[in-house]
Amino acid sequence: MRMKDLRPSGPANAVSLSVRASEAAEFLRLLGVLIDDDRDSYDVGAERITRLRDEVPAEVLADLTDLDGGSGVSFHVLSLLAADLPEPAEVDELVVALNDDPGLGWRLLLAHHATSADIADVDNLEAVVAGDSDTIAAVVADLDTAEEPPVGVAPLLACTPDEHGQRLLTAIGQLRDLWEELAGETMHAIARDVAHRQAQLEAGVAVADIVMAATNGYEVSGDPSVRRIVLLPSFWIRPWLVVGRRADAEILTTVVAEEFLVLPSQAPPPALLKLFKALGDESRLKLLRRMSSGPISLSEATAELDVAKATAHHHLSILRQAGLVAVGGEGRAARYRLREDPPDAAGAALAEYLQPHRRTTTSAGGPTT
Known about the structure:
16 helices; alpha/beta; globular; Arc Repressor Mutant, subunit A
């Protein structure tokens, strides 16, 4: 999922990086996770998401689903609002922003959908977010008549901007108690990740290297209009990556690194499971073999597998989440390339997991079988 807009020019080498912990962003992401039927796609696990859903009144879940369309995408995109909230970017700051401008979230989502459908240029997207009525009307008309409208367009166009903002504020009020139960665990993990990235910055690590590690495979584009990169680490939507543009900033919802999570002892690390899940599929192995001869586009991946574009994108996303593939470029120009040699990556990851156990059993009197 991508959003881009607002592109003042500037030298490519002037890009700066900031990392931000935002309760407001993470709360919105949680709302998206709660209504997404594809619960197995999140690292937190379908079982935990189901338990949380059971704590939410059915009518509240129904309203959230109706507001979004049922995929959770809208709330994940809305989390990008946090990049512009004043410190400390908590839920209170989000409520103030939506009370001051109820249509803000609606316009952000409209620009996102226009980008997904390739029906508006960057200047038009800027005008949409800024609230230009003529541009908004033109984009709405184009989306309303699109042959394949993006997921979430129908519920967005079914309400006015102000109505959307009021319904969003109602949902926030209804679920704040649930968020308060989860905020401690969530924000402690995010704070540790933020501190780590900030320490890397202070140590002089290159911005591109920090972004690559934090996103598990997203390459800084080098677009001269991007003057700032903002990282918003997330606990709840791991392992997914959300990319957006606001003004001169590229905003990346990244995943909290595993070392900052509280995981059960002796449990295989999620990264190891993702790696072997990625390798255990015929279609993804075909894509890796194809990329061994050079980068590919989404269209080329679609042709290689003879599947729908959404299916090919899903396979490429899983390969990126596993650390095997990097993606660079914008929209249709995006290219996917091998980031690591798959056999080397798999062998090293498995050896790292097994090594501590081997040392323990050997010291106790020799390895066991």
